[in-house]
């Protein structure tokens, strides 16, 4: 589903047409627009405890706005071009600035977005000036002069501008096991994104990495809930750093577990799995107080997330205490009709979503889908007909306006246009260090790596930039980089350091034999009904000429480096049934194997957003470095690792399936699944385990000890494990120490292993460090009881075997008594403190914590609670 695929916006044409560029007089000075241009000013003299006057200002505006204007504030429209009438080839008219200008003056829309990392221009100065001009126009033309919020997808750095630093993708972030470094990167993203005039980034993605067939696998930090939660919290904190930028925890909740591996397919899971694994990362991220949350486009256990009052109101607001803005995903009210076939028409979908708790509709400017005018009219009529309570509208608009006040938009609607120049392309050291730490050395037979640096290197494969025009550098960035599906052939590009240049500077000589790669196939079938995606995520070839060039160059090489993998991709266009490398890459590997005949070492580097490749390929390689999508400084980091200037230290944050060529069998597979590992004839163990990652040196552990051998989870949520780590090899290196629970018994199945804590330590050869690891007892929590999975989550009493590293020394942690690490983790069943409207709320009201079994909050676990529970579970009312 392209976000630019709509042909026309029919529904703006009824409104009187004003030409935005004429009315705005093009980029007038930012200073012309300031506080008080019609917007209710803050009353600083208030005596109601509202120190910054926010509430007074918001309430005054709410009093003044008509119902239509309120719904306008709940509407987010797309801007894809600063041309009044875009050429229509890629950006439809309805995304042009003329139409958007009308949405301000006629509808008073509250927000704009440039989705898909595709702003109206990739030139930073053009963007910031254009956004300022739009804001000036909006503030002058709309009735109350309320500034708009501008949202973008700055998901791994500000990947929207030519020359920007793009950080390694999310799957690389997880491999670093270094949330502090990632937080530092997000602070740069915050600064850079705010400096270009945006106020809101749709990040962090907090969905667990569950299924590598899914086209958004690369957007997950890890399959592990603790890692996903730790990083998402750190990322949220980093992104919230600039006062003018807010973050968006998405996609709430359970977006990443589509039943069939396809984007926006429904998820079926159990309440036990949701509560133990899927929901905790979102909750962790919410602790860093993001301004906004985006809703999962899919459905969970038979209920579309956008229509789930339980998810968006009872869980998110009443139980988790979220007070910010809930935004829909793109076009998703309409998708309740088209994708989910859940309601017969847009009116019904709109009613369900707003009542469930959606505050703002990210709408696709019309075309084949209902546009902003229809949305506003539909909501107004639903309110007039009593199908949406007006208080729900006020609540939603309050959330929008409060965010605008918090971001200081009323005081300063526009941004200093000189700021972006000093920020663009910065944070180089952070970016390079992240890229380095994210590299995972999967194989290294007979110490093939590191290279000595004197070798004649033969370099080939689709991941290498080629033909003098940088076309292949695309694979190092991935989706959401200067375009929805990643950068296009021929650019523009982010700031980037390429492997061929970086390696050439570090070895005796370098010969590059290009092979063919084109990343535009995802678009090729657009509108024709033909398959628009390929399992390979790109179009690859190894032509006869290229093959003979390889055959003649290979015998002269001291070492062959093949950069393999998949093309950049995104959302549904990235979905695939197989994870093997495409045929031409397999043939390249075979040809090299034939020509080198086991004499010359062959090194593979994989650039991919998923576990690409199988044992069939890897058996022919002597060493294998998984580089993921390492971003701007990926080329330098890889070259450093190949020659040993950097000693690889990344750890896989997901399990690499053993048989990725088959759409059934071991995909998906998680390391924390329940026993048994293998049944029947197939081997269900992963090819590379979660936590796998080699080094050029060796590390040894001493005997671990615990700060307390017995703990009570109601008293503490942490215990410290101390362990000595020694670098027993002859090279300096970083080592990630991980502690797993590897054996325990309880009232329900225990996962094979689960990660409780991790840390990164740098050691010179022969050096020993004592590492104090904080172990998170919450990671041991289970939902006890029989099948339903409704009981409060607890850490059960018993002995837990802890193992340091993959199979290092062990120790035993005793949990003395069953208890919860978080008293407030009372799962909302029964009435809950519902608002008394919308499906799902029974208006009884609960206290959100209460005693076990006390669903209605009357402090008595009684028959009423049981009946409530039954109604909840059976869906009867
Ligand atoms: C749809 C995607 O699902 C979401 O992640 C993104 O933020 C929006 N489009 C805007 O581009």
From TrEMBL:
Sequence ranges of Acidic residues compositional bias: 42-53, 855-865
GO molecular function: beta-glucosidase activity
Alphabetical keyword list: Glycosidase, Hydrolase, Signal
Gene3D superfamilies registered for this protein in UniProt: Glycoside hydrolase family 3 C-terminal domain, Glycoside hydrolase, family 3, N-terminal domain, Immunoglobulins
One Pfam family named in its UniProt record: Fn3-like
Reactions listed under catalytic activity: Hydrolysis of terminal, non-reducing beta-D-glucosyl residues with release of beta-D-glucose
Bias kind Gly residues: ranges: 829-848
EC number: 3.2.1.21
InterPro entries: Cellulose_Degrad_GH3 (IPR051915), Fn3-like (IPR026891), GH (IPR017853), Glyco_hydro_3_C (IPR002772), Glyco_hydro_3_C_sf (IPR036881), Glyco_hydro_3_N (IPR001764), Glyco_hydro_3_N_sf (IPR036962), Ig-like_fold (IPR013783)
Region (Disordered): 1-20, 31-55, 802-865
Biased composition (Low complexity): 31-41, 807-820
Membership in a protein family: Belongs to the glycosyl hydrolase 3 family.
Protein name: beta-glucosidase
Species: Halomarina rubra
């Amino acid at each position: 589903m392209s976000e630019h695929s709509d042909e026309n916006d029919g529904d703006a044409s009824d409104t009187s047409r004003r030409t935005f560029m004429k009315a705005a007089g093009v980029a007038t000075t930012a200073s012309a627009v300031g506080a008080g241009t019609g917007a209710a000013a803050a009353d600083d003299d208030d005596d109601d405890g509202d120190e910054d006057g926010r509430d007074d200002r918001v309430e005054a505006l709410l009093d003044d706005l008509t119902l239509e204007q309120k719904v306008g504030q709940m509407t987010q429209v797309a801007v894809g071009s600063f041309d009044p009438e875009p050429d229509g080839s890629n950006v439809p008219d309805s995304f042009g600035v003329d139409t958007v200008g009308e949405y301000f003056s006629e509808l008073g829309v509250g927000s704009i977005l440039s989705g898909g990392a595709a702003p109206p221009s990739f030139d930073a100065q053009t963007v910031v000036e254009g956004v300022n001009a739009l804001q000036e126009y909006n503030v002058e033309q709309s009735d109350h002069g309320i500034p708009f919020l501008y949202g973008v997808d700055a998901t791994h750095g500000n990947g929207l501008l030519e020359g920007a630093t793009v950080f390694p993708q999310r799957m690389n972030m997880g491999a670093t096991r270094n949330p502090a470094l990632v937080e530092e990167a997000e602070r740069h993203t915050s600064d850079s994104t705010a400096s270009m005039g945006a106020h809101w980034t749709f990040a962090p993605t907090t969905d667990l990495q569950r299924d590598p067939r899914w086209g958004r696998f690369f957007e997950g930090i890890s399959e592990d809930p603790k890692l996903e939660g730790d990083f998402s919290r750190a990322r949220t904190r980093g992104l919230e750093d600039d006062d003018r930028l807010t973050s968006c925890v998405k996609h709430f909740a359970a977006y990443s577990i589509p039943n069939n591996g396809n984007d926006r397919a429904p998820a079926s899971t159990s309440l036990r799995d949701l509560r133990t694994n899927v929901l905790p990362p979102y909750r962790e991220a919410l602790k860093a107080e993001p301004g906004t949350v985006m809703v999962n486009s899919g459905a969970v256990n038979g209920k579309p997330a956008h229509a789930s009052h339980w998810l968006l109101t009872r869980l998110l607001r009443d139980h988790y205490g979220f007070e910010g803005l809930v935004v829909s995903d793109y076009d998703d009210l309409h998708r309740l009709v088209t994708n989910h076939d859940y309601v017969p028409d847009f009116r019904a979908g709109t009613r369900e979503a707003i009542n469930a708790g959606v505050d703002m509709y990210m709408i696709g400017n019309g075309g084949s889908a209902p546009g902003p005018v229809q949305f506003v009219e539909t909501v107004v009529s639903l309110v007039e007909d009593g199908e949406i309570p007006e208080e729900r509208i006020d609540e939603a608009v309050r959330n929008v306006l409060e965010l605008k006040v918090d971001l200081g938009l009323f005081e300063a609607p526009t941004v200093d246009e000189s700021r972006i120049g000093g920020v663009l392309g910065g944070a180089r050291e952070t970016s390079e260090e992240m890229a380095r730490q994210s590299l995972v050395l999967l194989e290294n037979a007979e110490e093939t790596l590191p290279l000595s640096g004197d070798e004649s290197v033969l370099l080939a494969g689709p991941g290498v930039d080629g033909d003098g025009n940088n076309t292949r550098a695309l694979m190092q960035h991935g989706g959401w980089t200067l375009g929805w599906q990643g950068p296009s052939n021929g650019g523009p590009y982010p700031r980037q350091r390429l492997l061929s240049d970086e390696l050439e500077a570090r070895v005796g000589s370098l010969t590059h034999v290009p092979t063919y790669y084109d990343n535009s196939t995802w678009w090729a079938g657009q509108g024709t009904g033909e398959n628009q995606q390929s399992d390979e995520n790109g179009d690859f070839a190894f032509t006869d000429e290229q093959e003979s060039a390889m055959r003649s160059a290979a015998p002269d090489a001291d070492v062959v480096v093949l950069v393999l993998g998949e093309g950049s991709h995104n959302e549904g266009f990235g979905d695939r049934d197989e994870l093997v490398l495409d045929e031409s890459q397999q043939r390249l590997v075979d040809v090299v194997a034939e020509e080198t005949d086991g004499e010359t070492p062959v090194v593979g580097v994989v650039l991919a957003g998923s576990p690409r490749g199988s044992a069939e390929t890897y058996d022919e390689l002597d060493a294998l470095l998984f580089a993921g999508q390492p971003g701007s400084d990926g080329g330098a980091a890889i070259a450093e690792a190949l020659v040993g200037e950097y000693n690889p230290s990344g750890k896989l944050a997901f399990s690499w399936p053993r048989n990725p060529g088959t759409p059934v069998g071991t995909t998906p597979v998680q390391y924390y699944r329940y026993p048994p590992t293998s049944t029947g004839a197939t081997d269900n163990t992963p090819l590379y385990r979660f936590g796998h990652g080699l080094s050029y040196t060796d590390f040894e552990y001493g005997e671990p000890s615990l700060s307390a051998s017995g703990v009570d989870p109601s008293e503490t949520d942490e215990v410290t494990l101390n362990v000595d780590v020694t670098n027993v090899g002859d090279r300096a290196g970083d080592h990630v120490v991980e502690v797993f629970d590897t054996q325990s018994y309880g009232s329900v199945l225990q996962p094979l292993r689960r990660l409780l804590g991790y840390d990164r330590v740098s050691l010179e050869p022969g050096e020993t460090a004592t590492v104090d690891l904080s172990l998170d007892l919450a990671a041991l929590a289970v939902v006890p009881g029989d099948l339903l999975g409704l009981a409060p989550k607890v850490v059960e009493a018993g002995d837990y075997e802890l193992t340091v590293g993959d199979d290092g020394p062990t120790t035993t942690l005793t949990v003395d008594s069953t208890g919860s690490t978080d008293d407030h983790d009372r799962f909302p069943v029964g009435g809950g403190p519902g608002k008394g409207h919308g499906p799902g709320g029974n208006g009884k009201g609960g206290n959100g914590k209460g005693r076990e079994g006390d669903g209605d909050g009357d402090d008595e676990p009684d028959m009423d609670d049981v009946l409530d529970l039954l109604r909840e579970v059976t869906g009867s009312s």
